[in-house]
Design brief:
The protein is mainly alpha-helical and 308 residues long. It contains 17 helices and no strands.
Amino acid sequence: MKENQIDLLKRIEEKYAAIDQNPDTHLEGLVWAKPITYWDYIQPEALLNLQVQRTTLPDEMVFIMYHQINELLFKMILWEIDQVCLSETVDAPFFTEKLRRISRYFDMLSSSFDIMGDGMEVAQYMKFRNTLTPASGFQSAQYRIIEFASTELINLIDNRFRKDIDRNTPYEHAYNHMYWQAAGRDHATGKKSTLIRLFEEKYKEEFLRKMEHYNTRNLWTKFKTLPEEVKNDISLINAMRHYDRTVNVTWVMAHYNAAAKYLESGNKKVEATGGSDWKKYMHPKYQRRIFFPDLWSTEELASWGENL
């Protein structure tokens, strides 16, 4: 037996001994294991059978696949965010590299709206969208979790209620005053739309757990706990700013403009499928979502989302 093979067997024995397993059992299992193939590993058949149309209109397939691609990218984004949030120690190069990866995913999302914006006939969209009510892209749970993981809850609260909320506020109270609640809730009466009600029935308990989970380990809190020399790293600051603007302005406006192409194509006002006032919900100058407020100047904060 060659020396490198002896060393390899020793490492295998050490690996399985560490978890109280018999290495001989695992080695024998390799004798009977099938060779891995692309289709076994990637599961394309399963993936390509997840697109189920509600209508016979061909361009609905574009709409479905585009949103499923978004969800896969959201999963990739959360995967990278968690590597920062859950690490005990983080230096500037590691933090910067992860933010650059995350931003590339959102850059891809921002530029990809042309696929949907120019890839569907307006007439077809205006027909099949009626079968989607009250569903809405608003109901992407992963996107909400990305927000919880990116910044402190106060930065996601509706501007009208921030003065009454702090770190001691119960999570449920904070949840009920998230900026996006305004898209489907009458704060005067407390009545919630079907859009919000169904969304909460599915995800509210998970959201409350995620809010607590990320409360002190989100990207912004993580950044603020770094040593001063790390927080002053210009590459890291630029990566933070790029991510903030990409998510909360560039990507949002790409979505906004794609929606406007279809919803403003006729002569009458058209609501989003969920029934929300989509312009006020989506446009950054109204919601002013800013993940890392201390990294922007007073002038930049004042003009956030304007002149676009």
